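pls design
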């Protein structure tokens, strides 16, 4: 009786195993989708709206209309490119650092949008532009990530070295507020007491003269 209650059917065991193994991968893929598609598209929309604020057409067409148009176009272009890049990377089974996937995605998304907006000539022109700009942007982002990673490591190492040297709480020399140690505090107290004695002696001399 007790063993039958604890027995799992094959379907239940398969479902439990599937959910157990699929949860981390699904969450990581969801985070990757947000970081590589949603956030760039959102930032592109914000940049497009900002571009519309300084556009020369804002007076004739209206500021809200021009900003919304720029924001929509920037978001559509960036979303198509990022989506195509993720599709190519998943098809080729490469990571986000593969610039060939960026070039292929830029060429494909540029050809599609260029064909839609400018016909055959637009498809050729936009495919080249998207491939060059997209690959350059991805390459620049990768380099900036490397620079930031090295800079973060350097800062962390400096902090660790300061902690080892027991100087991590010491203020810099140029800081206007100084933290005194015990010897400096004792010297300051002695100096203050000496100054008080001198004032008392001067006061007594004045009283004698008067």
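designed seq:
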């Amino acid at each position: 009786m007790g063993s039958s209650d604890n027995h799992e059917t094959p379907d239940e065991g398969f479902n439990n195993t599937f959910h157990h193994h699929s949860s981390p991968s699904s969450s990581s893929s969801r985070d990757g989708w947000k970081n590589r598609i949603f956030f760039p598209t959102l930032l592109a929309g914000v940049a497009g709206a900002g571009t519309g604020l300084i556009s020369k057409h804002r007076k004739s067409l209206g500021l809200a209309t021009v900003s919304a148009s720029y924001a929509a176009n920037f978001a559509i272009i960036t979303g198509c490119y990022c989506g195509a890049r993720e599709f190519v990377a998943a098809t080729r089974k490469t990571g986000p650092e593969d610039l060939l996937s960026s070039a292929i995605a830029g060429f494909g998304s540029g050809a599609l949008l260029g064909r839609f907006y400018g016909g055959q000539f637009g498809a050729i022109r936009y495919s080249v532009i998207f491939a060059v700009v997209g690959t350059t942007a991805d390459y620049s982002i990768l380099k900036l990530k490397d620079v930031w990673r090295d800079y973060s490591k350097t800062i962390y190492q400096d902090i660790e070295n300061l902690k080892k040297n027991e100087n991590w709480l010491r203020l810099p020399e140029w800081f206007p507020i100084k933290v005194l140690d015990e010897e400096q505090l004792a010297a300051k107290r002695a100096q203050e007491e000496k100054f008080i004695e001198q004032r008392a002696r001067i006061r007594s001399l004045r009283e004698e003269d008067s």
